[in-house]
Design goal:
alpha+beta, six-stranded antiparallel beta sheet, 8 helices, elongated, 408 residues, 13 strands
Length: 408
């Protein structure tokens, strides 16, 4: 028990170092400039994600905001967008300008889009339409040395917008994507930094209220603990119980090995789940519904398995068989959900095509291969024993018949 508490204490200590300002997870702010290829501006800030910057001049007399957003493409066929949301720092309801190459001519375009709730749900393609806010001017231009849209090319989206009088706090949103279908930008990546690409800026003082993002250290610790526990240790513990228990030579050793592995895996998994909760609290507005739902399901099943140990009936109890059925069903369900969620976590962290996922797949494939071999061997042994028992019954029946015949 003290080992579990020590593991949780270490996890909490790392969390504190990663989350608190100045800790290992702190990210240095970038630099901005008021001088752009479009014109010179009065103020500028470095936006908190994607290495983007924003420069602007605000004329309080007519409430006109003259701004230039600078971002970078992540694909030759991609897009970069920036805009404002009059209601909240969120994508839904934002009025944006998206820059991308014209599919017909290859020239750089800057088209207006209204991000309705249907866009977030991907219920319909994104179609350009005039904005319902006073957009006085807009343009997009690539920054030298880039001459065409390519991965890493920087672009400046400039716009002049008339704001509501005496409105100094403006909600800005920005993002970038990989593809444009015709003249319709497709969904952007769903990494934590992409989902947190919005901020509220005081255009008079440059004060910025950005959505905090869980540190990279915290993300890697969360992923490592969960991949090792839910993704490997718990499946190994289940395999130990299934394939070592029938071996009479192991005695009760299989039970102690199974209990030790599962206890270690559950402790690490609980720590990883706790880190996930901390990351969620540190990143409001950034949600991964499927990953979160699977994580809650796996943690619930693991907790039920742990609690069930304290209510295990004795082997002579008539309810023992029902307890075993429950234990097997919940246990295997926990293993399946945990493994699926590990793959979902790779996608969330953007590691779907990296060596980390390949390494995990290799380890999981090795475990599955060993289980298949052991399963085949178990069935061979089972069939052999059945055949031997059948032959023994025939011999016994033959002896009985002979004895009866001799008696008469």
């Amino acid at each position: 028990m003290w080992q579990a508490r020590a593991s949780l204490l270490v996890a909490v200590t790392v969390v504190a170092a990663a989350v608190l300002p100045g800790g290992a997870g702190a990210v240095a702010a970038g630099r901005c400039t008021t001088s752009t290829p479009v014109k010179a501006y009065d103020k500028c800030i470095a936006l908190p994600t994607q290495g983007a910057t924003l420069a602007w001049t605000y004329d309080a007399r007519n409430a006109t905001l003259d701004a230039a957003f600078t971002g970078s493409f992540i694909s030759p066929s991609g897009w970069v967008a920036w805009g404002v949301n009059t209601d909240a720092p969120a994508m839904t309801g934002a009025r944006v300008l998206a820059a991308f190459s014209d599919p017909s001519t290859g020239a750089l375009l800057a088209l207006p889009f209204l991000l309705s709730p249907d866009v977030k749900l991907q219920a319909s393609p994104l179609v350009s339409r005039p904005l319902d806010i006073p957009l006085l001017a807009s343009s997009a231009s690539l920054l030298a040395p880039a001459r065409t849209v390519r991965d890493g090319a920087k672009v400046t989206i400039a716009a002049t917008i008339r704001l509501s009088p005496n409105r100094a706090r403006v909600h800005f949103v920005w993002n970038r994507g990989l593809y444009v279908q015709g003249y319709s930008p497709t969904i952007h990546p769903t990494d934590a930094s992409d989902l947190a690409s919005h901020a509220t800026v005081d255009i008079l003082t440059t004060a910025t209220e950005a959505s905090p993002i869980a540190s990279t250290t915290l993300q890697w610790l969360h992923g490592s603990l969960n991949a090792l526990s839910w993704g490997l240790l718990l499946p190994v513990g289940a395999a130990v119980a299934r394939y070592l228990r029938p071996c009479a030579s192991t005695g009760p050793a299989w039970f102690y090995a199974h209990a030790a592995i599962q206890a270690t895996g559950y402790t690490m998994g609980a720590a990883g789940f706790a880190l996930g909760l901390v990351m969620g609290a540190a990143s409001p507005g950034v949600t991964y519904k499927l990953h979160r739902g699977l994580g809650i399901a796996a943690a619930t099943a693991g907790s039920l398995q742990t609690l069930a140990v304290f209510f295990r009936p004795k082997t002579t109890n008539r309810y023992r068989k029902y307890w075993k059925s429950y234990h097997h069903l919940v246990g295997y369900g926990c293993v399946v959900v945990g493994v699926v969620n590990v793959f979902q976590g790779f996608e969330v962290m953007g590691l779907g095509a990296f060596y980390w996922k390949f390494g995990y797949c290799l380890a999981l494939a090795t475990l599955i291969g060993a289980c298949v071999a052991l399963e085949v061997n178990a069935w061979v042994v089972f069939c052999r024993r059945q055949q031997e028992e059948k032959l023994m019954r025939r011999e016994v029946e033959g002896v009985v018949v002979k004895d009866r015949a001799g008696a008469f």
